[in-house]
Amino acid sequence: QVQLVESGGGLVQPGGSLRLSCAASGSIFRIIAMGWYRQSPGKQRELVATVNAGGATNYADSVKGRFTISRDNAKNTVYLQMNSLKPEDTDVYYCNGRIYSSVTTWNDFWGQGTQVTVSS
């Protein structure tokens, strides 16, 4: 089994910054990609940013230039540096890991979610 544990959410004023962290642990054979998604009540979960094993990144248009995703392969950890935060960034943020738990088996794993609130 694989576990993803997130940290770093909270309340911040508009224009401020937060850094989210997500550590993967358990039966990890190989990590294909890790990323962040966010979801508001009644809405679909949407992609924020992903980074694959080779370091290639992908961002939602709404966060390009403000958010930066990075990964520490040695620690199986992914980070999301969020700058110039806006009220519309308020959401529950979920960490995702696409992970091989054996040579032949991969799954999408999710963290428990962390609340980010941008408000004055």
Give your account of this protein's structure.
The chain has 120 residues and is mainly beta. It has no helices and 11 strands. Strand 5 and strand 6 form a beta hairpin. 30% of the residues are buried. The mean pLDDT is 96.
Global shape: elongated
Cα-atom Rg, whole angstroms? 14 Å
SSE order, as H and E? EEEEEEEEEEE
Oligomer: single chain
Main traits of this protein?
mainly beta
Helices and strands in order, then pairings?
Elements: E1 2-7, E2 10-12, E3 18-26, E4 30-39, E5 46-52, E6 57-59, E7 67-72, E8 77-82, E9 91-100, E10 106-110, E11 114-118
Parallel strand pairs: 2-11
Antiparallel strand pairs: 1-3, 3-8, 4-5, 4-9, 5-6, 7-8, 9-10, 9-11
Give a quick summary of the entry:
With 120 residues, the chain is mainly β.
